[in-house]
Queue: 2 jobs
Job 1
Amino acid sequence: MVGVGEKAPNFTLKNTSKEEVSLSDYQGEAVILAFYPGAFTGVCDQEMCSLQDNLSELNTVGAKVIGISVDSPWANGEFARKYEIEFELLSDLDREVIDLYDAKFVGLGGLEGYVSANRAIVIVDPKGFVKYRWVAENPGIEPDYQQIVSICGP
């Protein structure tokens, strides 16, 4: 598990255009890694839309948002189009990043053995260290969005 104060492990995943995006692409910027269980799943819709609603404020304080799920680039692309999400949504198809960041949930929706991302927020500071980490007790719980904004603020 990557803890607060530790160097955030780099990763490379595909975005909705099937292009590779790495955490290291954001070197020198604060990054909010928003892990979510699945596109079009109610609470995830609310979470990504809430982050989108706070995006201008987050960008003002220099934070970039990256959503990460185990969904395909096509599902994430349709999700982004439907909700007009302007930040990157990345596909962790091999589930390596959710393992790396200890953001895994088993049994989503009662599907025994199905592994998805849990709802989790990891804030990486501009130097690449984990500044904040929150993992939901269950995927139905949303993060405190104002707390995220205040942590990213000056």
Job 2
Amino acid sequence: MKSKRKADVRILGGGLAGVEAAYHLALFGMKVDLYEMRPSKMTPAHKTHLLGELVCSNSFKGTDPSTAHGLLKKEMRELDSIVLKVAEETKVPAGKALAVDRVKFAERLTGIIYSHDNIKLIRNEAHGLSRDIPTIVATGPLSSDSIVKSLGQLTAKRGLFFYDAISPIIEGDSIDKEKAFLGSRWSENDTGYLNCPMDKKQYLSFVEELRKADRLNPHPFESKRFFEACMPIEVLAQRGIDTLRYGPMRPVGLIDPRSDETPYAVVQLRRENLKGNAYNMVGFQTRLTYPSQQKVFRMIPGLESARFLRYGSIHRNTFIDSPRLLRKNLSIKGTECIFVAGQLTGVEGYMESACMGILAAISAYLYIRGLPFAPPPPTTAMGALLHYITDPGVTPFQPMNINFGIMADPGLKGKKRKLALLEQEEKDFSAWVNGIKNKMTP
């Protein structure tokens, strides 16, 4: 019985990284105690008790293996990623992106973890970090105060904080389909997106109101530091009148079938679930007050009567100064058996966080068996992320998504560079995986 056995590994946090780490260690034959404080203690952003609950977006981004995001998924698939597997089982239409039904995705992950004989799910907050058992800290951007304090004591460093903003979700039936049209920037037959077109007058009025709308003030413990890929829509609007029109509201690749012309600007709505009764406002992460969101976002053609299933919001994002604090095996310097995974390491994005869970699991398993951890080469997607967050030369340190820019440069330019990157990745990742799998037999 789970209740009578002694754990080999302790994992803190039931998000994507924690679930991935627990699942892989269990596959390797390890007995795992997985701590998740919800629902006894909730965070400002989570709404359910489910493991792997997605709070920012339902999209895991692109799947094309010739892109950086697709390449990362290809590597994770070779390592039997449970997050990727469940995402593909619960996907909803989103063109070339992998988007999921949030509820089904989290329910499926929770069921898999809860029913695994090697995993004991403990619904309590973990207070402090102990060195008496190998531990993976995957408590995410909303880590509890006790975990942040414990990390501070271990590292003698202060955590860094910045805003991570959440996009609103609109009830599908409240969208005026006579004003919005289906279509994707990159696929003629994609029906996963609704587009709300604006003419120049509508766009300029919208930007003006957005700029002067009321915003939430930060708490004293939160600093005004934003991640460029998750910039609040109102902050972008302050940068210039055309910033939104060349950013999340760009009309490129979209033709309004009623006018047969490209709109001046477009607000895209991405289907949130298979039923199509909920849509996410793409790129509209925000820190506006709820009344301001109602007022300003209902200026968008098609959203005049919008009913908000979830308003946009902001929350603290905590991550450590990994280039100074972590070894290549994701263990904290000054300790041997405490590892960090997920967004706490400074990776940004769902798949990036999950991939760190896999690497932390491999590292912890090899530590327990007394074997060295060989990181994937920086010519691979997973290796490039790991190298970025553990390279002391990275300063100042800012959260990073996977991209070709952080992968080892083959010394070529243009199309030849990308082809060389992909060829080298295929060769190097295959060799690394073969070496790892030989060590990972339970």
